[in-house]
Amino acid sequence: MVAQASACVVLVSRPLKNTQTEVWATKTEPPASMSESKDNPTLREEFNRWADAGRGEGMEEDHLPITLPVLDLMQLSPEDNVVDVGCGAGWLERLLSERVPDGRVVGVDISDEMVRRARRKYVAIENVMFVIGGVDEIPWDANFFTRAISVESAYYWPDPARGLREILRVLRECGSAWVLINYYRDNPHCHQWAAQFATPAHLLSAEEWATLFRDVGFADVAHRRITDPTPAPESYTGRWFRDAAQLRAFRETGALLVHGTK
Fold this sequence. Notes:
The chain is an alpha/beta fold. It has one domain: Rossmann fold, CATH 3.40.50. The chain has helices at about 1-10, 20-25, 40-50, 55-75, 90-100, 110-120, 160-170, 205-215, 245-255; strands at about 80-85, 105-110, 130, 145-150, 170-180, 220-225, 255-260. A seven-stranded mixed sheet has the order 3-2-1-4-5-7-6, sandwiched between helices. α5 (about 90-100) links the parallel β1 and β2 (about 105-110). α3 (about 40-50) crosses α6 (about 110-120) and α7 crosses α8 (about 205-215). The protein is globular and about 45 Å long.
């Protein structure tokens, strides 16, 4: 364990390959060798509807309190190359770009409309780009990223094991993956969401997620809960929770963070 940790501290940003250099210089869609994932029209259409309704931009307010602790735990270096799987409207890319000023940040999302909005909003950030693609076939070369993160996306993945294998593929040796989700079996205050979802979702336990990480080849797999300190309102009339008390209990139980190392 000590020897592995020692080997991993030498990670530094490496030069882009020729195809990646071209893509980065123009911030266009990847060529055939880094092509977009196979079409998943149901998932794409659903999140395009979210984009049209402006829900992508609202994700920062909802998810920032549980994401900031994860960024601290990731111990990002200025030279890290980071991929965000399920980037939505791109708010996390802005935060990541500030933490890795000498690295690169790539946001990947199945929704072409989310990606278009993210590109327009963050076009001025030089070390960030957005590509259309799904976790089942991440449109990037292998062994490139030093960190991978996914926030509130993984339970929508059609095949979580395949998605984790793809993340493992694009990570460099000693790179790490960090998956954060609010919908998981060990938090009973989210189970009712299933009736609201327009697409299938996986309700797995923390240990089931950890087992998937291990089965695809990740090492040093661990999980923990990230509580949300946001105060609950006195009354709640939304569709996701029964009442303010359930929302409060949901936040106190916390989101699930699973992470592992290549």
